[in-house]
Amino acid sequence: MNAKITFQKLLISFAILIAIGVIAFNFFDAGPLAKNKSVKARLDGLFQELNVHKISPPTESIEINLKDIHGDRVRLSDFKGKIVFLNFWTTWCPTCRVEMPSMEKLHQRLKDKDFAMVTINIREPASQVKAFFKEYRLTFTTLLDLTGDVSAGFSIRSIPSTYILDKTGRIIGGVLGPREWDSKEAIALFEHLADNYVAASAMVSAH
Fold first, then answer.
1. Domain residue limits, the chain
2. Is 184 helix (H, G, I), strand (E, B) or coil?
3. Interval 9-42: pLDDT, tens
């Protein structure tokens, strides 16, 4: 297999998330940020504005091990300490093509912060993905899920699909479909996450 997902539970599918609605998301309720309720309120509002499904409690930390378009092996754990924007896509997907330029702008805006953009192409050869990246002038990391095992493990049913991972590799949110990722709301969301996110393990319970 070209990919290994090492978490204890299967990820909750977006279909289930839609069925149960928006889940309470309280990772900013405790610890140092508890003193600044405006930060939590702002981030909650940004999640709502972008129609991000917030996952609470977060999943276990996950690991993915795939090759990129240059043949180098990349693991999600390589980005530990950063907020990870994890996007599943294909070159033939019209809405993927629509959102990719805005993703590149978000990447350029935040690449020097605690933020990493990682995309996973589903079942397409490196040569085809390379040509797409050259055509669209994309510079962020993309990995090749040649067998489709990783996308199946994430219960991907439509593309583009995006997950947001915290700095310890746990999934804290998910998005179905394209977004304007260079919008002021998206930039503000990821800037706040990169600058202010405190892992739950470092927090003191507010209860």
1. 14-201
2. helix
3. 444 444 444 433 433 334 444 444 444 677 667 7
Host H or E run for residue 47: helix 37-49
Q: What is the pLDDT of residues 100-153, one digit of tens each?
A: 999 999 999 999 999 999 999 999 999 999 999 999 999 999 999 999 999 999
Cα separation, 91 vs 131, in Å, equals 10
Q: Contact, 88 vs 168, CB < 8 A? A: no
Q: What is the pLDDT of the chain when averaged over all its residues?
A: 83
Q: Pick from 65, 62, 63: which is nearest to 2 by CA?
A: 65
Neighbours of 126 (CB within 10 A): 16
Task: Say if domain 14-201 classifies as CATH 3.40.30.10.
Answer: yes
Quick one: tokens of 198? Answer: 């405190």
Question: Which residues in the chain belong to E strands, given as ranges?
Answer: 53-54, 65-67, 73-75, 83-89, 115-122, 141-145, 161-165, 171-176
